[in-house]
Amino acid sequence: MHLHVASAYSLRYGVAPPAALAARAADLGLETLALTDRDGLYGAVRHVRACGAAGIGAVVGADLGFAGGERVVVLAEGRAGWRSLCRLVTAAHAAGERGHPVTTRELVGAHSEGLVVLLGSASDVGRAIAARRPDLASRLLGAWRATAETVIEIVDHHDVGDGHRAARMLALARSSGVPAVLANAVRYLEPADHPVAQVLDVTRRLVPLDRRHLDDRTGHAYLKSVPQMRRVAELFCGPDDAAELLAETRRLSERCVLDPGRDLQMDAVHLPDTGADPHARLAARCGEGMLRRGLAGSRRAEARLADELGVIARKGLASYFLTVADAAALIRSRGIRCAIRGSGAGSLVNHLLGIGDLDPLRHDLVMERFLADSREGLPDIDLDVESARRLEAYEALFGRYGAGGTACVSMMETYRARSAIRDVGNAVGLPPQEIDAIAKAFPHIRASQIGAALHDLPELRQSNLSQGRLDVLFRIAERLDGLPRHIAMHPCGVLLSNATLRDRVPVEQSALGFPMSQFDKDDVEEMGLLKLDVIGVRMQSAMAHAVAEVARTTGEEIDLEAVPRDDPDTYTLIRTSRTLGCFQIESPGQRELIGRLQPWDLDDLVIDISLFRPGPVNSDMVSPFLDARAGVREPDYPHPDLEPVLRESLGVVVFHEQVLRVLDVMTGCGLSLAEAARRSLNHERGQAVVGAWFREKALARGYDEATVERVWRTLTAFGAFGFCKAHAASFALPTYQSAWLKRHHTAAFYAGVLTHDPGMYPKRVILDDARHFGVPILPLDVNRSAPDWHAEPVSDGGATGIRVALNEVRGISDAEVGAIVGARPYASLTDFWRRARVSRPTAERLVLAGAFDALYAGDEQVPRRDLLCRVGALDRVTARRGPAVPEGQLALGHEDGDGDPSAFAEPVPLGELPPMTPAEIVEAELDVLGMDVSRHVLGFYDGLLDGLGIVRAAALPGRPAGSDVLVAGVKVATQTPAVRSGQRVIFATLDDSTGPVDLAFFESVQEHCAATVFGSWLLVVRGRVRHAGARAVSITATACWDLNTLYGEWRHGGMDAVRTAMARRWPRPRPVGRRVVQPTGFAMSPYSDIGHAGPAVKRAPLWHAGGGSSGPSPN
Amino acid sequence: MAHVFGDRVDVRVSDGRPVRFVWRGRLYRVRRVLEHWVTTRDWWRERHPDGEATGEREFWRVEATPDREIGVYELRYDAVSDSWLLSRVWD
Fold first, then answer.
1. Looking at the structure, do residues A895 and A970 belong to the same domain, yes or no?
2. Largest Cα–Cα distance of chain A, in whole Å?
3. Is residue A980 part of a domain?
4. 20 to 30 A Cα–Cα from A97, which one of A418, A442, A769, A922?
5. pLDDT bracket for residue A396 (50, 70, 90)
6. Start and end of every DUF6504 domain (chain B) (predicted)?
7. What is the pLDDT of residue A844?
8. DSSP for B28-61?
9. Cβ neighbour number for residue A771 with a 10 Å cutoff
10. Whole-number pLDDT of residue A774
């Protein structure tokens, strides 16, 4: 019935998600519903699915914008219409600038097959009618009729004059013999939603809320029922014409209903062409792989291969595997590191084709988690590549499969608390600084949580925001929750298909210039398209950089994949927990776990990575496992039959693969069915069904009730949170490789980590770690620093240091870095100024960070402040004479101009400025480089810290458990992960120059600590010592203070003033929000695992990233 | 010449539109609806709006007559207070 409907996928215009519209339409008794989003088909697949689920017919079209602001709706009829619609939308985006598609009548004409054009009040015809130019209107209408099938669309939102215009539109249709339909240009579900649409109107236009800026002034753009629509029509044209309009509308709707299978071909798979008989070629290549991998003759391998090929043949997926193998080989042929991640590592076929490097048989990985008859759709193979070269990998794929058959996958960024507050703040006209402060006061929560967070979080309760003044702002911001606000390129998905791709997928350009599908990752799966996830992993780049540095400095060529995976020195390093910078095992929680688990080989790392998950933590698997491993207690198997399955993890269920095997052993269902059952475990309904089935089968096979109950409890507690072992194994490899590099090529390792910044800590922490490992930190030097961090031997045969990179200088451009490196060496500052031609701020920052110190060391030492004056003088001379001062005309650069004051228009005498103190030098380094290079920043507070009796990180392991200590340091990380109790626990890590100090703030202390923890950079914390394993210590915090505040007190009033400041009383604690209990029984704080309030401390997700294959993310 | 009033009126509605109203003790019959439009409230100007700001105002400009004399009257319906006003009169 409704032919003109915008969903929330009409960015900053529509309000309701497609599924809600379809459900409401069905409730209203409508038989069909169109989705005609603005300039895109972003919601089309969801709409078609939702209509299918709601039992109504789906019509799809688009509301296309013209250069003059006019709009027409086009609807697709049948398969030809869908193809035309996809191609027309793509063409409109190609015609306009990125993000501003422009349609023309000619463009519509070029794709008119199967399209119906609706000319409404926003069309050129509608505008002519509004302007009372019937002559012009009928001329324009004639042009449209010559272009495509044309229908007049009549909308009346009851704004002033709407009724009369509607009547005139109808009269035009009648007089020219064009069919007319009734529509409501729907933007939201119900009248009460209109304020959201109004806010979107002004945020789209970047203007304040005012009636004159609103498209929607009447609140009538909602999904109306047929009787409501009839009444609208009767008001402007009377009952007879109204009935005819409705009938015509129904006829057109029915004509344009699309069939998902026949018209959209959602029931087929559209793979790249791989030539004739793909299965035979796949089998042959697997055979070659068996020889190459040394598996020929292994009966186990042959049986497994036959199994996998059987499933592949039944599902017709040979082309899929050939394509992925081709893509992985293509990426590697460019010299880009490429590793498989996720469940795909469990497939022998992937191993044999060279897609993955791990032998699934050796690591006991099952294929059914990845590939089984019971799994629907295409399997999911993810490739990890070097983050710095990800786009290069994309380009290779586009080159290979052709721009017409390839596209990146998009994703919708949606409104969250901060973005919603920013947009609504602008709309209600708050000053920008105030908006910024308000937005940043919130943690990275959903917009719908704003009100709850104001009430729950101590750091917000104390912020004056919750006093009612901003009520309207927050209420409207909450209503933007989850609305799409921006389309972006998905960070990893690439579609590989054939030349028909553009017939089924609308494409626009991404910010990086790649063709990007308007469909997101779920949509493309529904559309039967192969999506390859090519994930940029910074650690892969860091390792590639380290390997290149080793080759550059020593000539040694390392093949990381060939490094033996049992190097004892590497595991010795890992067991010390000094694993900062290593893949996956550097977070405080992981270092604690590593300390307790004490890994000896790759399988231990696989277990470690899998245990560090909410699931195992929740079902209390960690302690029994660690106890059994330490020999404190015997492994406990629920039943002897399960011992072979659970032996590797000493009786504890850790892996998805074990869930499959436990189900198989106790029910005899086979692994394929077990995989289907496992997937049902992550929702309540599925759990009930699988539970009943499991009990019945297991009891029938003779297992006693107690055992069955116990096993079932374990499986449900494990829920969806467990880890895919194949995924953990594919992570364990780079974990090992990075630790191996840290142990054996320490300087090169740090150069890689500092250049590509793969981890969770700020770089200054990594730098400090390098210091602890005895790696000399070589200062910035215009003659020696490279664009990136380099390893550099300090002396022949001596230690290898790392040289600060030019790219670290704040504000320096790539062009400047290139110019500096290109014109080296420099004899003096003047020489540098003349030839490197950098901007004055860059030159000043280089001076301040010490990049010229080496040039002016020794007898002719010139302090940095004097050099800074010279930059100013040089700049003034250049400004007067123009940048291209011919040599010789001025004494610039003559000999060493710096020694010759006559070179300067303003002589700069030496030695009159005081040299920078060490504190000033560190301050300059923090400002310019963002890290303290010459010495640790905490050193300047030593007097106060000694007076307070601060315990250093290095001394903490010697403190008895439960003792009260004061610690201090630079905050380097804060996290609020999901923990067993469901509390919001703030974990913070301080760095105090002797090592990291790990802190836990429980809810009982957050009332007085949260604001300080999130808001301060330097902290003093009181707490109790807790030992976790042999070496790891963490502090349960009871109080904290801003170090600089205490320092101020100390400077003014000495230790007494400090003690007074620290003795102030705290407010009473209260709980931080309600618990959210998952279907699995896992209680979580609603504020767990989110970015915190205040400025960012660098942070990465606590749990392993990676969607589908590793189970859902914890929030 | 338009006169602006703000008098409460009793309005009889049939089939979604006003058909009769009583103003200052006289009964007016609506002969014809000339114009009908609605507006939403400026909810963002209201400091503490109670609940959601969804109320609309509906305007009807009608030809109506108490006897033989025809005039143009503008009636305003406020959804929040569920009340009618006579907002303007042309005679």
1. no
2. 103
3. yes
4. A418
5. very high
6. 3-91
7. 94
8. EEEEEEEEEEEEE--GGG-SS-SS----EEEEEE
9. 16
10. 92
Contact A130, A155 (CB under 8 A): no
Check CB contact of B17 with chain A, cutoff 8 Å. Answer: yes
Q: Which domain range does residue A448 map to?
A: 416-482
Expressed in angstroms, the distance from the first to the final Cα of chain A is: 38
CB A810 within 8 A of CB A926: no
Calculate the alpha carbon distances from A743 to A372, A386, A746 in Å: 41, 21, 6
Per-residue model confidence as pLDDT tens digits over A36-88: 999 999 999 999 999 999 999 999 999 999 999 999 999 999 999 999 999 99
The count of structural domains within chain A is: 6
Is residue A333 a part of any domain in this protein? yes
Q: Are residues A214 and A295 in the same domain?
A: no
**Where is A801: in which H helix or E strand?**
strand A800-803
CA A554 vs CA A370, A557, A747: distances in Å: 42, 9, 12
Do A335 and A402 lie in one domain? The reply is yes
The model's confidence at residue A1108, banded by pLDDT at 50, 70 and 90, is very low
Q: Are strands B83-90 and B2-8 parallel, antiparallel or unpaired?
A: antiparallel
Top residue of B19, B44, B88 to mutate, by most chain A CBs within 10 Å, is B44
Q: Residue A673's CB: how many other CB atoms inside 10 A? A: 19
B-chain residues near A194 (CB < 8 A): 40, 54
Domain ranges, ordered by start, for chain B? 2-45+52-90
Per the prediction, chain B carries an average pLDDT of: 85
Closest CA to A678 of A658, A698, A695, A697: A658
| Shared-domain flag, residues A601 and A709 | yes
Question: ipTM exceeding 0.95?
Answer: no
As given in the structure block, the two tokens for residue B82 are 């569920």
> Does A227 lie in the same domain as A123?
yes
Are residue A856 and residue A958 in the same domain, yes or no? no
Q: Provide, as residue numbers in chain B, all residues whose Cβ is less than 8 Å from the Cβ of A216.
A: 40
Q: Which residue has the tokens 């319906």?
A: B77
Which chain A residues are within 8 Å of B38, Cβ to Cβ?
158-159, 218-220
> What distance in Å separates the CA atoms of residue A36 and residue A75, rounded to the nearest whole number?
8
pLDDT band, residue A1073 (cuts 50/70/90): low
As a whole number of angstroms, the distance between CA A883 and CA A976 comes to 53
A231 touching B, CB under 8 A?
Answer: yes
pLDDT over 60 at A1103, yes or no: no
User: Which residue in this structure is represented by tokens 């709407």?
Assistant: A162
Q: How far is it, in rounded angstroms, from Cα A289 to Cα A295? A: 8
Determine, yes or no, domain membership for A326.
Answer: yes
In this structure, are A842 and A973 located in the same domain? no
Indicate whether A403 and A451 sit together in one domain: no
Determine the residue among B34, B37, B58 to mutate to test chain A binding: the one whose Cβ has the most chain A Cβ atoms within 10 Å. Answer: B37
Helix, strand, coil shares, percent, chain B, to 5: 5, 65, 30
In angstroms, the CA A370 to CA A366 distance is 8
Alpha helices in A76-185 (DSSP H): 78-95, 105-110, 124-130, 134-147, 162-176
